[in-house]
Amino acid sequence: MKTTAPDASASGPRCLEAAVDDRLRRAAVRRLATGVTVLTAVHGDRVHGTTASAVTAVSRDPLLICVCLRTGSAFAELAAQAGRFAVNVLSDRQAPIADWFADPDRPAGYGQFAPVDWEPDPDSGAPLLRGAVAWLDCRPTASHPGGDHSILLAEVLCGSAGVGGPLLGFDSRLHGVELRDVARRRAPATAAAGITTLD
Ligand SMILES: Cc1cc2nc3c(=O)[nH]c(=O)nc-3n(C[C@H](O)[C@H](O)[C@H](O)COP(=O)(O)O)c2cc1C
User: Fold this and answer.
1) Residue 148 domain-assigned (yes or no)
2) Which of 34, 53, 106 to mutate to test the pocket of ligand 1 (most atoms within 8 A of CB)?
3) What is the reported pLDDT for 5?
4) Ligand 1 pocket, Cβ-based, cut-off 6 angstroms
5) For 155-194, what is each residue's pLDDT tens digit?
6) For 38-67, how does the pLDDT look when each residue is reduced to its tens digit (9 = 90+)?
7) Which residue range(s) make up the domain with 119?
8) How many domains does the chain have?
9) How many CA atoms does the CB half-sphere of 132 hold within 13 Å?
């Protein structure tokens, strides 16, 4: 495979001593584009929703995702107690919902769901937000420390897809994007081996 030598120009890839600067390291990490979700869980009379973009596929078989939640997250505690939670993958029309479920001043309990259109998951009861591009019903399987966050591993028990384009987080902002196919080349053996998690 042809490799490209590191570009020495100002805009090229490099990791000079200056880039060890905290601001630059974080700015680089912020350029990992992510989907944006609202995680929901219910246990007894307690219900909670929280916005999370650190959600990614981990394993194809079993089908696992992981969610990174700040240490002390109210959601992580409730999801562990409930043994189930839902992932609502937001559409590009739902940026205000992402902001709402990240607002520390939102009401607790069912009050936080009053401004949104939702229905309970038929199995877990966790709120499913209408208009999302996908919904996952998940069972937490493990939690691992990760710096000032915890990495919650969960099995996807059930999933369904909605319509519309995804809401993306990139460079500390939320974006709607026009998805277009791009040129790519992939060896058939790579596809057969399921090198990407969900192929
Ligand atoms: C776009 C966006 C993405 C976020 N992603 C995460 C995340 O992945 N993990 C996290 O712990 N907090 C994330 N937050 C912050 C939480 O949503 C916020 O701190 C929330 O109030 C936590 O509530 P809780 O601890 O009561 O569940 C995100 C916020 C926004 C706006």
Assistant:
1) yes
2) 53
3) 43
4) 36, 50-54, 68-70, 73-75, 98-99, 102, 104, 169
5) 999 999 999 999 999 999 999 999 999 998 876 665 556 6
6) 999 999 999 999 999 999 999 999 999 999
7) 34-43+54-168
8) 1
9) 27
Question: Backbone phi, then psi, for 190, in 5-degree steps?
Answer: -65, -40
DSSP at 153: E
Residue 92: CATH number of its domain: 2.30.110.10
pTM of the model as a whole: 0.89
Which residue is it, tokens 């059930």? 158
Residue 155 belongs to a domain: yes
pLDDT digits (tens, 9 = 90+) for 24-34: 999 999 999 99
Among the ranges given (14-28, 82-96, 148-162), the one the predictor scored with the smallest mean pLDDT:
14-28
Quote the ligand 1 centre to 105 CA distance (angstroms).
13
Whether residue 193 is contained in a domain is answered as no
Closest ligand 1 atom to 75 CA = 27
Q: What is the pLDDT of residue 2?
A: 43
Q: Domain for residue 118, yes or no?
A: yes
Buried b (16+ CB within 10 A) or exposed e, 97-131: bbebbeeeebeeeeebbeebebeebeebbbbbbeb
